[in-house]
Amino acid sequence: MGTYFLRRILLMIPTxxxxxxxxxxxxxxxxxxxxxxxxxxxxxxxNGGGGEVSGGGSGEEIEISDEMIEDLKxxxxxxxxxxxxxxxxxxxxxQLDLGESWTYTEPVWDVISERFPISLFFGGIxxxxxxxxxxxxxxxxxxxxxxxFDGVSSIVVFVGYSIPGWAMGIVLLVLFGGGxxxxxxxxxxxxxxxxxxxxxxxxxxDRAHHAALPVFCYMMGAFASTTVLMKNSLMENLxxxxxxxxxxxxxxxxxxxxxxxxxxxxxxxxxxxxxxxSILLAGSYLIEKVFNIDGIGFLGYMAxxxxxxxxxxxxxxxxxxxxxxxxxxxxxxxxxxxxxIRFK
Length: 344
Fold this sequence. Notes:
Blueprint: H1 2-29, H2 34-48, E1 53-55, E2 58-60, H3 66-75, H4 82-94, H5 108-143, H6 148-162, H7 165-176, H8 200-238, H9 241-248, H10 253-265, H11 270-274, H12 276-279, H13 285-290, H14 296-305, H15 309-337
Antiparallel strand pairs: 1-2
């Protein structure tokens, strides 16, 4: 099995290279790049000033010369052929140098690291809470299959799943954000303006107060799928021969479920645990926009809009690496949970 995981690790290298090559190619040749945007801004300034702008007290007409275009290409790294530009970027990326953001004029690592704690906070809390709630709920639904509780909870779960998280966020803010109804939660942001003046428990409460609605919206997408997956996996294992043998020996339902069936039922959920690393950088632009959260999702969206390719490539490299590592961790968890699974 060690040989299998070694092959998987070695396979991650060409996979990551393929992902970065395709993304670099798309951003290189897609229309409306940074050079075109800079030229457009010059044209807008030219038209807005009636064809002239003041310079040194005299009117000077803006002329877009070939030299200006070449200078812009050099500034944004478009003066080299595509393959040389990619190899140059790859050489710096291997040295953990992702370049400098064209929008923020800061190193890409600094731009991403400033927002990483936000993604870690919401992604981590949302992930842990979803498993702490969905696993017991899925077990109870399986134990009470076809009961009124099972039917009502299924309706509630799937109705919530059908509503996008950002739409639910707007509804929650209208209801509980001091709009037309109750003023229970703040409208957004991560903390209050007086956060630095609070004590330890005051800061904990302030963060929890601000995070309650966003975390709930983050959980909605995975809530239904995790609950149903846990229920179906448990019910499938309850129909196995070893379960009938355990009941024939006189074991109680709780002993059979929690001592024999529960561990095998966790195998499908191991994938979600392995993907936890990629969840940290997933984010959600719409949810972050609704609650005014400056996270990774909003950063990635604005980087695409502004054609900030260094930031976009940095997010792609980090998120792709975490996704590949998460898949490897998921396979390891399979083998740990079920000793019958052996990779070759």
